[in-house]
Write a structure and sequence with these properties.
3 domains; Porphobilin_deaminase_cofac_BS; transferase; globular; 13 strands; five-stranded mixed sheet; Double Stranded RNA Binding Domain; binds ligand PBG; EC 2.5.1.61
Length: about 350
């Protein structure tokens, strides 16, 4: 019998208290319990600043750590041992004493179209010109403006249930909204998915880390690192590290209009490579930089290096100017609102 790595018997998992966050955390709890039955894993949930603020568009927040900071403080203080996040919401730079552990298999990474109840459109291409699409994501807004300029875009905030209710309300301005497949699938709302969006059928790429869970631990916590390795999935971890390295290198943070699509592909020589499609689009959809590359990625270091390579290629294709323009507009806005 393998020897137990620690005398600690109970581990506390921190999470936001939204339905989706709790559901995801219960999945991690169950996987850990199965892999390490001799230990107990209890859940501590907390509403974060991000949950409490549902009126302001996300991109207008100046602090990037809306969803993560308060839980990180509790972990650094030792009150929780690990934190389960939607990886998409985890900033690319973590506090120096925190790291992400090995990642569990990723859920579907794509965005999806959800059409208002009672309407029969089957795809983005079928939505009539002038219809309103609900999204508060600058990435979705920019890509829609580029590929579907005939559609109007309007903010829709709140958790998944709230957004669906806003879509379906009788006096709703929206014909459809765009959401991540993962959240709907985890909440067993797959019936609401009208169309899965990808590079081939709609040209819509997803957010860095989308569909994956980020499990954050204290950097020195070798024991939890070892425990998480047992439930981790190398292909997911490496793809997500590469995506996050790309975003970090572009320095766009969560408000960058960056879309990605990673996939493990066979090279003509039979090797397994990580392929990354990536796009940076200006908010009005008029400028666009895009790059597709693949590389032999077999370690965290090579995943990070690949992300940097893709970032440099995107900048060479014009991404730098697009991001700079967005940054300048943001600074101008902040000055006005003071
Ligand atoms: N930004 C909010 C958010 N963060 C994580 C998810 C769920 C899907 C995931 O795990 O990526 C969502 C909702 C959405 O974008 O539709």
């Amino acid at each position: 019998m393998a020897s137990a790595p620690t005398a600690q018997k109970t581990f506390t998992i921190g999470t936001r208290s939204s339905k989706l966050a709790l559901f995801q955390t219960e999945q991690v709890q169950a996987a850990l319990k199965k892999a390490w039955p001799e230990y107990d894993f209890k859940i501590f949930s907390k509403e974060t600043a991000g949950d409490l603020n549902t009126t302001i568009a996300l991109r207008d927040f100046t602090t990037k750590n809306l969803w993560t900071e308060e839980l990180e403080e509790l972990m650094i203080a030792g009150q929780v041992d690990l934190i389960v996040h939607s990886l998409k919401d985890v900033p690319t730079l973590l506090p120096s004493s925190c790291v992400l552990g090995p990642m569990m298999p990723r859920e579907d990474n794509r965005d999806v179209l959800v059409v208002k109840q009672g309407l029969s459109y089957k795809s983005l291409a079928e939505i009539p010109a002038g219809s309103v699409v609900g999204t508060s994501s600058i990435r979705r807004t920019a890509q829609l403006a580029r590929k579907y300029p005939q559609l109007k875009i309007q903010d829709v905030r709140g958790n998944i249930g709230t957004r669906l209710a806003k879509l379906d309300a009788e006096d709703s301005p929206y014909t459809c909204i765009i959401l991540a497949a993962a959240g709907l699938l985890r909440l067993e709302l797959q019936d609401r998915i009208t169309q899965y969006l990808d590079s081939k059928n709609s040209g819509m790429l997803y957010a860095v880390g989308q569909g994956a869970l980020g499990i954050e631990i204290r950097k020195e916590d070798q024991i939890l690192h070892e425990m998480l390795s047992k439930i981790g999935h190398q292909d997911t971890t490496l793809a997500c590290l590469a995506e996050r390295s790309l975003l970090r290198t572009l320095e766009g943070g969560c408000s960058a209009p960056l879309g990605v699509e990673t996939e493990w592909v066979r090279t003509p020589e039979g090797a397994k490579n990580l392929q990354m499609r990536s796009v940076v689009v200006s908010v009005d959809g008029k400028e666009c930089a895009q790059v597709t590359l693949d590389a032999d990625v077999s370690s965290a270091a090579s995943a990070e290096a690949f992300g940097v390579t893709v970032a440099k290629a995107l900048v060479a294709d014009g991404a730098g100017a697009i991001l700079e323009a967005i940054q300048q507009e943001k600074v101008a806005k902040e000055n006005v609102s003071v």
